[in-house]
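Our preliminary data section would be incomplete without showing what the modeling component actually yields. Below, a chain of 147 amino acids is followed by its predicted structure, encoded as tokens that our downstream tools consume directly.
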Amino acid sequence: MTSAPGRDFVLALAAVVGLTAPFVALSSCGAKREASAEVAMIDRPAAPEIVAWISVPMDPAARYRALSVERKDNGLVEINTLREVADRRRYTSHLVDCRRELIATARDAATEETFNTQTPGLGTMAPWLPGTPGEKIARYACAIAGG
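Predicted structure:
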């Protein structure tokens, strides 16, 4: 007689095999598929979207959201954030030097439309100050970008 944990494992394995077998059989039956853009779009996994809240205890009234993180050719990491306080929003783009722990503001706007039309600048690189929103944003960007 099989013990309860062993029996549960066998039942779980049987369920997985039972659920996946029809798909394996259908995909390996040898039927040819016409190549199409629609199939390619469905089969290709989507890139993960980076939209996360960043904790900034020094600024408890505000919420900071990372909208995108991208490593640039020059080694810097660009992070676009949204800062929300009550009914006000602010869109900001920062450039981060993870190795030297420096950060600069590249763009800043009150609306998404204005933000998207601005040309990013380099800004002035400054050291991360412990506990500040800039330091928390920079650490998040470096963690995401592997940097």
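Residues 52-145 form one domain. The longest strand covers residues 62-71. Preliminary results of this kind motivate Aim 1 of the renewal.
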